[in-house]
Design goal:
Blueprint: H1 3-13, H2 32-46, H3 48-51, E1 59-63, H4 65-78, E2 88-92, H5 104-108, H6 117-129, H7 135-140, H8 146-152
Parallel strand pairs: 1-2
Helix pairs in contact: 2-4
């Protein structure tokens, strides 16, 4: 489903685009998709001369769940001195926050198609463990221990 857009980006930017066909949930639970993306990125970076790519111009990109994976791969590679440094990460409507589905953005956009609030929680559960039976508890916020909620309140809060 991404071949046309990848070809377009490659053609218009005159860049090499590598699209990773990672394993999908719920059949393949976390961390399968992350490991696939990380391994593919490391393989690409270790063999960069074969692809004719300037190692100073590597960008990791993803949308939706792929945005989450691109962010995770970028964070993992940030501390690696044995690989080229990433130039940037491009995250297109990434799924980055599953601590609180009651934040203003979730409330304001709860009925906006395509990714309704309930559907976002459902997909997070599918990604993590393949079982969406606890979606109501996740929407209520009871999946996060109180001490963790306090710890991350500075970054994840309505304020």
């Amino acid at each position: 489903s991404y071949e046309k857009i990848c070809r377009y980006i490659a053609r218009e930017s005159q860049a090499v685009v590598v699209s990773v066909g990672y394993r999908l949930a719920p059949e393949h639970k976390y961390p399968a998709a992350y490991e696939d993306c990380l391994n593919a990125t490391i393989h690409f970076m270790n063999n960069i001369e074969h692809y004719g790519v300037d190692p100073a111009r590597i960008i990791v990109c993803g949308d939706s769940a792929g945005g989450n994976l691109a962010a995770a791969v970028s964070q993992t590679l940030a501390g690696r001195s044995d690989l080229p440094r990433l130039r940037a990460q491009i995250l297109i409507y990434p799924g980055l926050q599953a601590l609180d589905f009651n934040l203003p953005s979730y409330q304001q956009n709860r009925g906006v198609p395509l990714l309704f609030r309930e559907r976002a929680a459902f997909y997070v559960l599918q990604y993590l463990n393949g079982d969406a039976s606890n979606v109501e508890e996740v929407l209520e916020g009871s999946h996060i221990p109180p001490d963790m909620r306090l710890k991350y309140r500075k970054w994840v809060s309505p304020d």
